[in-house]
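Sanity check

After download, print the first record. It should look like this:
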Amino acid sequence: MQARDLVNHRLSYHVVVTFDLINNKDTSVYSQIKELFAERLELQNYTSTSEDEGGKEIELPFNTFATIYHKEDDAKDLKDWFSKEIAKIFKELKLKARYFIAVADNWSVGAYFAK
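Expected structure tokens:
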């Protein structure tokens, strides 16, 4: 299944992924992960506020990614697909990591800066 195969405008899910690399001191891999997450999973390192809040893009913490998916299947199927694809990316880059995936519809999501 390709990320683009998941398009169906009947139901949308907000997907959030965050991870920690285990025993890795090479910070250059983060740019590789970011590229592969964007290319293969359409995950971005930002989220957008609602139109009511101005529709601004807000950068997420460096190890957190998000996207909106329009998909016919249920949230569990989508979470399972993301988990498999993320595991492939970490294996391909020869990285050990722990990661968290949240998939939900009708969610209220906020991204903020503390000043």
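If your output differs, re-run the checksum step. Summary of this record's structure: The two ends are 42 Å apart (CA to CA).
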